[in-house]
Amino acid sequence: MKIFNIEINNQHYIVEQPSKDYDIFYVNRKKGTFCIAKDKDKKWIIETQVNPTLDLPVELIGQYIDAQLSA
Prior knowledge:
Structural class: alpha+beta
Largest sheet: 5 strands, antiparallel
Strand order of the largest sheet: 1-2-3-4-5
Strand content: 35-45%
Number of helices: 1
Radius of gyration: 11 Å
Number of strands: 5
Order of helices and strands: EEEEEH
Distance between the termini: 17 Å
């Protein structure tokens, strides 16, 4: 499992990749579950959301993930 710690606009996010074989990532799983993934057009989307009140900057988090995985 890969874990990324991200800070965007003074907000901390913990991103977990359960397996390198999957392109689904869990965001802040202990505070409410968000699963983000790429859609068929390679855009980052929220796949599942358990705490709908949080505004998740999914594109910014996705860009960070892309940068980390290509490094």
